[in-house]
Amino acid sequence: MTSARPRNPAGREAAPAPSGSGPRLGLRANLAQFALLVAVNALVGGMLGQERVVLPLLADQVFGLSASTAGLTYIVAFGATKAVTNFFAGTLSDRYGRKPVLVAGWLIALPVPLLLIWAPTWGWVIAANVLLGLNQGLTWSTTVIMKIDLVGPQRRGLAMGFNEAAGYVALAATAMTTGALADHAGLRPEPFLLGIACAALGLGLSTLAVRETRDHARAEAARHPAPTDPRHRENPSTAEVARITSVRDRSLSAAAQAGLVNNLNDALAWGVFPLLFAAHGLPAVEIGVLSALYPAVWGFGQLVTGWWSDRVGRKHLITAGMLLQAGAIGLVAAGTTVPVWTVAQVLLGVGTALVYPTLLAVVGDVAHPAWRARAVGVYRLWRDGGFAVGALLAGVLADAYGPTTAVWAVAGLTAASGLVVAVRMDETLRRPAHPSRAVPASAPSPPSASAPPASPAP
């Protein structure tokens, strides 16, 4: 005889499954592993943050790369590698499991800070950023997938908010710290010692403490309703997943282009903003503070915006965020003083916080659990391809017309992307009370007043 399980009064999170019925979904049921994965993703962000302030200055002051395009080659190398790795990370995590992919990503990270410390030529820096792209594609993609696996359908926005907040708050803290270290002790080696610590801790935690989550996705898939859209078969090929995510599904394709443009403007903030600030005479420590402010607001803001998107929906937050980003980037171009740039960086962080976790939640909403990891990989292929596109575009425009023109051009592209979301994307958040809502793997459908209770699943 089975007894009814208590339900959350808000109806937002499934109760644990009975003992022996398989993996339990929900944030509360998986809190320890979820918190551990948040910590691991903070270390992933720290690996990226070690470069945000120091590498643009290294390119200019140590390697003499005065041309913007040449200086931004490391972002192109990073972005292109990470984008392709994202795609394979989803496929590999479906085939071999999430944890092996995560551990492999950390093994690849180990030589990155050492290459940056010892680099005698710019080619070493490019090689380090190829490895960093592999690391970020494998580790960040996998922590995203694992958190979606654990929390089930009711808390996707909140889960992505915590995931992205951890990564970008750590990125901001590392960027600010490395800026201060560079100002005090020089550009090498001290700033990159933080990267060594992040890689060692990330590998240790992922190997010894993180548990596999693929069975959670399988448990959700077993209870997931059959797709109503004939284009969304339960077991499409990887090529079909790529077509659905990139073109055929309105919401997924709108999310893919918005993700690309979001990281296009992040490449601008990474590679051009520090040079723009330095051209106005700011020292490395002030550049570090400004460079850290944007990802810090972005990171902390996602703790609210991910949860908020679970309440009010995805589409309008994404549209508003893209338009706010565009205005903030324009303010950077128009500004010439630290107070103006400070306001611009805060607004850019708020806009990105509205967009970043919400786009991932859209992918989780639409994609079937059986191919969701691959859909996340395709989305992140497009999104992180924006690093390469943004670095090339910003570099070419900055060389030809100056950095201010490059900043204005990216502001215009970001505004256009927000309008595409407003026109093309459907609202993907399904309300708990809606009869077509997917039933979490750990909770049965409540009986209605006019029908007998459903028989338990075999």
UniProtKB/TrEMBL annotation:
PROSITE patterns: MFS, SUGAR_TRANSPORT_1. The chain crosses the membrane at residues 31-49, 69-89, 101-119, 125-146, 158-180, 192-210, 317-341, 347-369, 381-400, 406-423. The keyword Cell wall biogenesis/degradation does not apply. It is a multi-pass membrane protein. Residues 1-22, 216-239, 431-458 are annotated as: Disordered. Pfam families: MFS_1. Residues 30-429 form the Major facilitator superfamily (MFS) profile domain. InterPro entries: MFS, MFS_dom, MFS_trans_sf, MFS_Transporters, Sugar_transporter_CS. CDD domains: MFS_MdtG_SLC18_like (cd17325). It is found in: Cell membrane. Residues 443-458 have a biased composition (Pro residues). Keywords: Cell membrane, Membrane, Transmembrane, Transmembrane helix, Transport. This is MFS transporter. It comes from Streptomyces actuosus.
